[in-house]
Write a structure and sequence with these properties.
This protein is an alpha/beta fold. It has 22 helices and ten strands. 48% of the residues lie in helices and 9% in strands. The chain has a six-stranded mixed sheet, sandwiched between helices. A two-stranded antiparallel sheet has the order 1-2. Helix 2 packs antiparallel against helix 4, helix 5 packs antiparallel against helix 6 and helix 15 runs antiparallel to helix 16. The two termini are 39 Å apart. 35% of the residues are buried.
Length: 508
């Protein structure tokens, strides 16, 4: 309640003056009744009551009384009461979750059950972002949060004790790596889920130290064994279940934490609760109708959901009340981004719809009409989807950083675009310098470089650490390239990557 009161405010405070219309109407009505046409000062009160003509029984609820209640409610609704932030329409508004999977030798008997629980959790959270962290004697980020279940499945299959550099139980380091992965993502509260049969008490100090940095993120332990779990103080332990009850509980905890955590990102708009407050005025407004006829019609209309006509748009009734942007959003929610793009008047939202429809050229044109850092960032993401438009993407990301220097998503995506551009230019130079008559000696044609799954828009984070002299692409860039299925197998990639991190003396 204290958090609600601290965050509560109105978006359009001048509309609160409308509340004065209610008392004004009541005062005017009482003044008219007191005046009684000017006869009260001329005729004696006991005679005036018999001389005045009244039609029927005086109403119990007069219009001025209804106005006294109606106008303050309308004033609050129009003022836009708000107490929580609204996520950006270009960022997934579902709870992000990072799964830390125990790959120690001691947990190997329960590994198959743990992977099955992770698959059930991904299926229960269809469309939400899920990341993976592997840990044993050390902890290693395996996959940043993604909403692609096939990518999660590929990495999940590859995780086994064989890919870990050393055995052990570094639950505290796993929690720290999971929290770092959540902090690297877009705004909003997330959840770290440790999938393990036990956490020994020796991990309590490290676990508690990592949990102290959790902030708005929740910590859940999905047990695949009987414990002990003394090494995970502060975590919510979900007991194993023979069905999916434990998985459903974890998903519910993640959703509840995402919904109740305070959103303090200034880039997120405040959610306007005015339309919900306006519903309180509907019963009072119906009192002004005739004999309930209009009331019945409005009740039928308000009780019905917006229905799509055969041609894909809303029926005529709802077109009278909804703006084109609102109709477009309904189409977008229904899975028709191409139709939605034709209705959006906001160029940035139109660009998001075109991007989802696969029209990346149109999306880039629409995003270029925006004048915010977010619009420039989305323009860079659209350029990344176009063939070899990495230079244009870098220019867009640079513009976003000029408008908003503290924009880590734009900086990291720029580094990734620069890595692709360097790789393509290097392949072009090698091809030009090594032209021979033997086709098998030709280097790869730069025109054949294909990125199967370019970066997703709206805040999908990528782990980039810059180039290391003499080593080519950085570790983060290698991971980004692998995520686009450039080559190798998941197990080979994870084994080499984890070994490289362990040899460097720490977990990134």
């Amino acid at each position: 309640m204290s958090g609600f009161l601290a965050a509560f405010h109105v978006l359009r405070p001048w509309w609160l003056l409308l509340a004065l219309a209610g008392p004004a109407a009541l005062l005017l009505e009482r003044a008219r009744r007191r005046g009684a046409g000017g006869w009260r000062g001329v005729v004696a009160p006991h005679l005036l009551a018999a001389l005045l003509v009244r039609d029927g029984v005086p109403p119990r609820l007069r219009p001025a009384t209804v106005a006294l209640l109606l106008f303050p409610v309308l004033a609050v609704a129009l003022a836009g009461p708000s107490w929580r932030r609204e996520p950006s329409p270009f960022v997934a508004d579902s709870a992000r979750l990072v799964v830390a999977l125990d790959l120690s030798r001691a947990a190997e008997p329960a590994l198959a059950a743990g992977k099955r629980k992770v698959r059930d959790l991904v299926a229960a959270r269809a469309g939400a972002r899920t990341g993976l962290v592997a840990y044993a004697g050390s902890a290693h980020p395996a996959l940043p949060p993604t909403d692609d279940p096939r990518l999660i499945e590929a990495y999940l299959d590859a995780l086994s004790p064989k890919v870990m550099p050393r055995d052990g139980d570094a639950a505290g380091a796993a929690l720290e790596a999971g929290l770092a992965m959540l902090e690297a993502g877009e705004g909003g509260a997330g959840t770290v889920v440790l999938v393990t049969p036990a956490v020994p008490a020796t991990q309590a100090a490290a676990f508690q130290a990592a949990a102290g940095q959790a902030g708005p993120h929740a910590i859940v332990l999905l047990a695949t064994g009987q414990g002990p779990f003394a090494g995970a103080p502060g975590a919510t332990v979900v007991a194993p279940a023979p069905d999916t009850a434990d998985v459903d509980q974890v998903a519910a905890l993640a959703r509840r934490n995402f919904a109740t955590a305070p959103a303090d990102d200034p880039a997120m708009r405040w959610r306007d609760a005015g339309p919900w407050v306006a519903l309180l005025a509907v019963p009072m407004a119906l009192l002004f109708a005739r004999r309930g006829f209009l009331a019945a019609l409005l009740l039928l209309a308000l009780g019905a959901r917006p229905a799509m006509a055969a041609e894909g748009d809303l029926n005529w009734f709802w077109q009278l009340w909804l703006t084109p942007d609102q109709r477009a959003q309904l189409m977008l929610d229904r899975g028709e981004p191409a139709r939605a793009a034709g209705l959006f008047t906001d160029p940035v939202r139109r660009g998001a719809a075109l991007y989802r429809a696969g029209d990346f050229d149109g999306a880039a044109t629409a995003f270029s009409q925006g004048d915010t850092a977010e619009a420039a960032y989305d323009l860079g993401n659209a350029q990344m989807m176009r063939p070899r438009a990495w230079a244009e993407a870098i220019e867009a990301y640079d513009h976003a950083l000029q408008l908003r220097p503290d924009f880590p998503e734009a900086r990291e995506n720029r580094d990734l675009a620069a890595a692709f551009l360097r790789a393509w230019e290097a392949a072009s130079k090698d091809r030009a310098a090594n032209q021979t008559d033997q086709p098998e000696t030709h280097p790869p044609d730069p025109d054949q470089i294909v990125v199967d799954q370019p970066p997703q828009p709206e805040g999908e984070r990528r782990e980039t650490q810059g180039d290391t002299p003499g080593q080519g692409l950085s570790d983060g860039e290698i991971q980004a390239l692998w995520m686009r299925r450039v080559g190798g197998t998941p197990a080979d990639f994870l084994r080499l990557r984890f070994a490289r991190q362990a040899a460097a003396g720490g977990t990134p």
